[in-house]
Write a structure and sequence with these properties.
With 255 residues, the protein is mainly beta. It contains 4 helices and 12 strands, in the order H-H-E-E-H-E-E-E-E-E-E-E-E-H-E-E.
Length: 255
């Protein structure tokens, strides 16, 4: 997992640290996980015709590299970030905002010249998107359980029924901890309008004298998934060169 050395240089982490935000903590390397596996097979009749099998395992996975990529990039000497953002609602619909400036620019696609792209930036600017790995981030883990029954109906055929259960824990979810909160109101004529309040961290960023970030995307290991499957199979050995195989799976997956 990505350790404290990369996070400590992240511009987003440094900004959150400057305002005393609780997310400004260093995570640790999650490299001491315990991953047991166990299985069994039991001959019910002692004749090799009725076999009961099962097993359980705990499997840790790797973090998808795109998850910490943006945070790591914000720890480099020069950083990647958007400098031109088109939106509507905060000012006049159809206007745009050059990140790093506080004034709306009357820009329209196809009519106005493209903005000048500045040199590579070394700091975040007003309105930039912050990226962070959560202090409590952990490696994803999968709990897998299976139990099955095998019946040798004849010397050339076998029937199998197996149930498989998989539970995925500590999977990734991106959470915006500095969202733009929209509210529904009415204008002087009674028509509904949508307005947005300042982002929760905007005042603290401004008071600390650091760039006022837009979205702050925190990567958290709080997602989970589940799979349940019931497998049926029949195998019949026909001749030396042919066999008949039939399979059916009834399953459900949720995330």
């Amino acid at each position: 997992m990505i350790g404290a050395s990369a996070i400590a240089k992240s511009r987003t982490y440094l900004e959150l640290l400057a305002i005393g935000n609780p997310y400004a903590k260093l995570s640790h390397d999650d490299n001491k996980d315990f991953s047991p596996r166990i299985g069994f097979a039991y001959d019910l009749a002692g004749q090799g015709k009725h076999i009961l099998r099962g097993g359980y395992g705990l499997y840790y996975g790797n973090i998808f590299q795109n998850i910490p990529l943006f945070m790591i990039q914000q720890a480099n000497p020069t950083i990647y970030q958007s400098v031109f953002d088109i939106f509507a609602g905060d000012t006049v619909p159809g206007t745009s905002l050059i990140l790093g400036q506080n004034s709306a620019q009357g820009w329209s696609f196809g009519n106005s010249p493209s903005p000048t792209i500045p040199p590579p930036l070394t700091t975040l600017v007003d309105g930039a998107t912050g990226r962070l790995m959560d202090p409590n981030y952990r490696n994803p883990v999968s709990q897998q359980f299976n139990v099955g029954y095998q019946w040798a109906a004849t010397k050339n055929s076998v029937v199998e029924i197996e149930y498989v259960h998989e539970l995925g824990l500590h999977e990734n979810k991106t959470v915006n901890i500095n969202p733009k909160i929209a509210t529904l109101g009415v204008d002087s004529s009674g028509n509904p309008i949508i307005t947005s309040a300042p982002r929760p961290l905007s005042a603290a960023f401004a008071a600390a004298g650091v760039p006022v970030l837009g979205r702050v995307m925190d990567e958290q290991s709080v997602n989970r998934s589940r799979y349940d499957g019931l497998n049926f199979s029949y195998r019949q050995h026909m001749t030396k060169h042919f066999s008949l195989n039939a399979n059916y799976t009834l399953s459900r997956a949720m995330g």
